């Protein structure tokens, strides 16, 4: 089997064929959604394209993985949360909502990484099992910390909305008078 090496700065390329199979061009093998999830978990940068049209299908594949994960056990998204997200589609705030969710998720990842860094020096205590046990013991504390963080995020978002609403008349208060049109001059 010939393995294509990835060039520096180049995303790993996965091609999706009409038979719904996924082909990893780097390893010259067919892969599954589970393999793609493994790439995500390993922080591997990749791109999934349609083999015929070159259309970028990466988001679709990631959404499929999320759907499988949500159906497979303890879901991350509640029905209420999913309904709220759906309501933002087509709304004037859709772009802002996506940006807000992305930044909030990044903050959550940063907090998680910081906690992970702080436990690295604990030796055997930093295994995933030990981390899980610690989280279970500290669950009320962690829920409180995350609850406070989310409440602060919500407050900031509400303040931003209020500022946007108060600035709706932003252009109406400029100290200039509109120039008369040609028909008004005559």
From TrEMBL:
Pfam families: PHB_acc, PHB_acc_N. Residues 13-72 form the PHA accumulation regulator DNA-binding N-terminal domain. InterPro entries: PHA_DNA-bd_N, PHA_reg_PhaR, PHB_accumulat. Residues 77-112, 127-165 form the PHB accumulation regulatory domain. One of its GO terms (biological process) is regulation of DNA-templated transcription. NCBIfam families: PHA_reg_PhaR. This is Polyhydroxyalkanoate synthesis repressor PhaR. It comes from Polynucleobacter campilacus. The lineage of its organism: Bacteria, Pseudomonadati, Pseudomonadota, Betaproteobacteria, Burkholderiales.
